[in-house]
Specification:
- The complex is a heterodimer of chains A (115) and B (115).
- Chain A is built from no helices and twelve strands.
- With 115 residues, chain A is an all-beta fold.
- In chain A, strands 2, 5, 6, 10, 11 and 12 form a six-stranded mixed beta sheet that branches. Chain A has a four-stranded antiparallel beta sheet with strand order 3-9-8-7, with no helix packed on it. Chain A has a two-stranded antiparallel sheet with strand order 1-4.
- With 115 residues, chain B is mostly beta strands.
- Chain B is built from no helices and eleven strands.
- The chains are: A mainly beta (115), B mainly beta (115).
Chain lengths: 115, 115
């Protein structure tokens, strides 16, 4: 079974600085998808960024980018120019290419932004 | 935002009583999912549906049942609630089970407390 591990329960960063959240996963599949979701205090799950494993280029969405290392099974999220609104729980998630698109989530990292 | 609502949003119940949570979508998406969120575990899949009357078990299905009689509604039932089922429950939807760009979108969540 696939597993996703986020080894940093909590992280903090100064406003306007850059922070990187770590995620590793375990799978025997060659094709799959990886996601980062953000959960602010409202509890709403918000998609931040996604990566297809067959793409070598790292995904980027404005201030959010990933460092996808397929061989190392690593999928980190970099947030540049951190803003107060970035404070939230961040979840890394894995999805197999085939089947019912079930997501496997990591335990989450709580990110605090210091003004 | 994806048109997903969950009801009720908050519920307090007693051990041994039946509880039904409802997820309603206006997107006409084929796939619907129920997850539970607990501290230290991220989100875990309970059950999912791939069409009307078509459902399957997820990672933590014991003690739960589901039904889907209409495309837009997916019900999660706790037949006899236990304190271990105290959690936040999220519904999610997606267009299909395969495809390169499909993403799951989440409802606002239901907080359930079993006393």
């Amino acid at each position: 079974a696939q597993t996703v591990t986020q080894s940093q329960p909590e992280m903090s960063v100064q406003e306007a600085e850059t922070v990187t959240l770590s995620c590793t996963y375990d799978t025997s599949e060659s094709d799959y998808y990886l996601f980062w979701y953000k959960q602010p205090p409202s509890r709403q799950m918000i998609l931040v960024i996604r990566q297809e494993a067959y793409k070598q280029q790292n995904a980027t969405e404005n201030r959010f980018s990933v460092n996808f290392q397929k061989a190392a099974k690593s999928f980190s999220l970099k947030i540049s120019d951190s803003q107060l609104g970035d404070a939230a729980m961040y979840f890394c998630a894995y999805r197999a290419d085939q089947g019912a698109q079930k997501l496997v989530f990591g335990q989450g990292t709580r990110l605090t932004i210091n003004p | 935002d994806a048109g997903i609502t969950q009801s009720p949003r908050h519920k307090v119940t007693e051990t041994g009583t039946p509880v039904t949570l409802r997820c309603h979508q206006t997107e006409n998406h084929r796939y619907m999912y129920w997850y539970r969120q607990d501290p230290g575990h991220g989100l875990r899949l309970i059950h999912y549906s791939y069409g009307v009357k078509d459902t399957d078990k997820g990672e933590v299905s014991d003690g739960y049942s589901v039904s889907r009689s209409k495309t837009e509604d997916f019900l999660l039932t706790l037949e006899s609630a236990t304190s271990s089922q105290t959690s936040v429950y999220f519904c999610a939807i997606s267009k299909s089970g395969t495809g390169l760009e499909e993403t799951q979108y989440f409802g606002p969540g239901t907080r359930l407390l079993v006393l």
